[in-house]
Design a protein that fits this description.
The protein is an alpha+beta fold. The chain has 19 helices and 25 strands.
Amino acid sequence: MTSRSDRSPEQAAVSRSARRRASRRRPTRLVVGLALIVVAVLVGAGVVVARQRGGGTGSDTLPSSAVGDRVDTRGGTLSALALGPVPSWDPQRIASRADMAFAGRVFARTLTAYAPSTDPQQQSRLVGDLATDTGTASEDLKTWSFTLREGLRWQDGSELTCADVAYGISRTFATDEVTGGPTDALAVLAIPREADGSSTYTGPYGSGEKAKAAQAVFDKAVTCDDRQITFSLSTPVGDFAEMLSQPAFGPVKKSADRRADGTYDVFSSGPYMLRGAWEPGRGGLFVRNPHWDAASDPVRKAYPDQIRYQEGLDAEAIAQQVSADNAAGRAAVALASVPPAIQQQVTAVQSLGDRSVNPLTGVVDYLVPNVKSPVFADEKVRLALAAATNRDAYVTAIGGATAAQPSVSLLPSALPSAHDDDPVGAGVRGDAARAKALLAEAKVEGPVEFTLAYRSDPTADKAVAALVAGWRQAGFAPTVEPITEDYFSTIVQKSAAEDYDVFWSNWAPAWPSGSTVLPPLFDSTINITDAGPGRDYGYFSDERLDEQMAKTSTVADRTARERGWADVDRRLLQQGAYIGLAERRALYVAGSDVRNLSANTVLGGVVELADIAVVP
C-alpha cells in the first residue's frame, strides 16, 4: 500500500510537517513528544516481541530485533542490496528514513544520534555523536548549546568545525537549490519570516546587501564559539536534541559544496567514504575513511572494510539472491523487505529464519473519519466505526503476522509514548454489538452509509474488503472509492471533504517522539487553512487539544513529555479523531557470512549497519 511514484507520508513525514509549520503556523508554536517502549524478551539467539499491542496477531516465529551471536571481527566486504533509487546523498536533501539511516551509520554524522542496541527498549536512547552529549537547554527551551568532540576530521584530514555544522544547516534555507529534505530548521530557528510565512533568510548562496544582512541574522541564530555551537529558537522545543539527529542538521564543508551539482556527492565525516562516483541506478562502493577515529565515535563500530551498495534490484530478486547463499549472497544483506508473497518461504525454512529479522517499522496505517461529513459529525458514530473495525482481518489480508501487527494507536511500539489503551474497548477484532450500541446512543438507524477513499493496489483492495465485511456486520453500508494515482495529492484537496466520508492514510515518526506524529496530523492550527486540511484530512479540530499539544511540546523532561503525548493520543481516540489499523513490519534476510544482523525500530525498522559484520 505504498508507492515510490506517489510519495507516501512515511517517506517524508517531517519534511512535509516542517514545511507547513514554516509557512502556516503561528511562529510561537512547535510540538514534541515521548512514549512507552515495546516490551521484548530474549528468546534463543534473538529478541522476539512479547507484547502485542491491543492483542491479536503478532510475529512470534521470527526474531524482531537481532539474531545470532555478536562478534567484533573486522574485515571483509558487505554487499547491501536495495531497491533504490536513492534520490540524493546530500545530507540536506535526504528525505526517506531508509536513506537517512544508511547515511547516518556510514558517512554522515550528526550532533546527536540513537545508539544501536539489540534491545528495542534501548533503541530510543539518544547520545552525543559529533557532540560530547545531548546538549544543554535554557529553562525556556529556546536556547540549546552543544560542544563538539575533539579530533573530528573530514575524509581529507581537515578538521570538522562548528562552522561546518552551521554551514550545513544554513543550506536548508536555500529552498530553491537544496530541495527534498526536512525543513525543520526553517520552522524552529529564530529567523524572521516574510508575510507569506517563508524565511527572510534564503541560504548561504545569496549575494548583495540584503543577503549579507540575512546571513547576519542566521549567524545570530546559530553561533559558534570555538567547539561550542548554540541555537536560538523562535519557540520552545523540548526535543530539539532529537531533531538534530537528522542528516539535515549535519555538517557540510563549504569548500566541498557543489550546490545543485552535488546531489550524489559524499564528503564523509563517518567511518566510510565513497570511492569514485555514485552511479544512479547501480550504486557505489564505500571504503574506510582513514581519518575517522573510532575513539571519537560512540555510535559506529564499522566492522566491514567495505560496503558495496547495490541499488536497482527487484525486492524478490534480492530476497532470492541472499536466500540462495551462493557466492554472491553469502556476504550480502537485503535492505529491501522480503515481499509478502514469498515471506512464507523464508519463515518455513529454519536456516533462513536463523538469518532473518522481522522488525516493526513505525509505519502505521490508519483511517480518518471526516467530521465535516453529516455521517461522522457525531462523535459516537465515529466511535461506532472504530468499534466495528477488524484490525486482525486487515493484517491477515496484507500478509499476516510477518507483514504487520494490529494497532489501535498511531504511536508506534518503539516510541516512548506508545501505550496499550483502547478507549473504545472493542479490541483488535472488532465488536459489532458494541458498535450497534454506540449507534443506538447516537440515535442513528442503520444501515449507515458512507464512502471510503483509499490508495488502491491488489493488496490494499483485499485489506479494505476485510474491513468492509466487519463494518457491514455492525450496521454500516460502506462504498469504497479506490484511487490508483496521486492519492495523497487528491485527498489533501479542499473538495475531498465533500466527496468522501473516511480516508485511509499512513504515517511514521521522523524521530522517536509523539511530537512527530500527533501535531503534524491533528493540530488544527498548523493544518487547517482556507486552502484545505493539510494532513488533518478529516478536519478534526479541538481548541483545548491544540493547547494541550502546545503545552506538551514545552515540557523539558523527556519522560514526562512523552507521557503527555500518550495522553493527547488517548484523547484523540476517545473522540474518534482517527482509527488505528496496523503497524507495518519488514522482513530482512542476510547471507550466512553476515554477523550481528539486527534491525533498528526507531530508525524505521531498517537493518542496523552500525555494528554489522562479515565473517567468512
